[in-house]
Amino acid sequence: MAKIVIGVNRLSSNVELQNLDLIDLLSERHSLLRKISEQAWNNQSDIYISNSEWYIMARIYKKRPTISYVNKNVEISRQAIHKFIKQLEAKGLIEIHNVENNKKEKCVQLTALGEACYEKNEALKAQLEQKVAEKIGAEQVKLLKDLLALEWGIES
To answer: How far apart are CA 73 and CA 63, in angstroms?
Structure first.
């Protein structure tokens, strides 16, 4: 398993973070966690998978959704989704199938390799979450997750 090193101390002492509003602070932390997660994967695997590709893989893990479903449920442009699906297929991570009784529609699913990669990446993310918990406390991580999971009443 790859070792995950995080720079929480460097960012925690960063005065600039103290002056950010909620949206920018969430964005900064999200970007940092995604970067660390991506590096952890790339340090232990020969298969490069971008954050956008992980996002698509998460939407289809253990499912067999149609491509139009993926288009509606992934916040990436339709053209980009098609490009990422082709890249994932070329890497052997997903398969594209015809939908029964529908000549136009296609569905996607992870291959055995895709599922194995996804599950290894989930383990790496759990390791990263544990590192954060060691730094800020398990209760704080639980509270943060609970707060982020609440209904905020702001969906568009």
So the answer is: 13
- List, for residues 75-120, the tens digit of each pLDDT value: 899 999 999 999 999 999 999 999 888 888 999 999 999 999 999 9
Separation between Cα atoms, residue 17 and residue 25, nearest integer Å = 7
Contact of 117 with 53, CB cutoff 8 Å:
no
Q: In angstroms, rounded to a whole number, what is the distance separating the alpha carbons of residues 127 and 130?
A: 5
The residue ranges of DSSP E strands in the chain, in sequence order, are 94-99, 102-110
Predicted structure pTM score: 0.83
Residues, the chain, total?
156
15 against 66, higher pLDDT: 66
Rounded-to-integer distance, Cα 130 and Cα 109, Å: 30
Show the 3-state SS of 124-140: HHHHHHHHHHHHHCHHH
